[in-house]
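Our consortium's second objective concerns turning raw sequence data into structural hypotheses that experimental partners can test. To show how far this objective has progressed, the report includes one record in full. It was chosen at random from the queue rather than selected for favorable results. The single chain below, 79 residues long, was entered without modification.
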Amino acid sequence: MEMVYEGKAKKLFKTEKADELLVYYKDDATALNGLKKGTIMNKGVLNNRITAFFFDLLAKEGIPHHMILFGPRYKGLLD
């Protein structure tokens, strides 16, 4: 898959559908404006679950959002 964006906490990849992106949440951690770098095991998993939780709350309140699918571990699908 082709990566279209990488930030401190996630990577975005193209999918087979032009209007959808795959989100991969990273385990990377930084402090002091990037002077200290490390890895926190399962940070990406936790970020993915927190994101899915809030999108689910929005859906329950009838508020549209862009989350299509909550995937296992680090992934989410957006439109």
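The partners drew two points from this record. The longest helix spans residues 43-60. The first strand starts at residue 3 and ends at 6. Both points have been shared with the crystallography group to help prioritize constructs.
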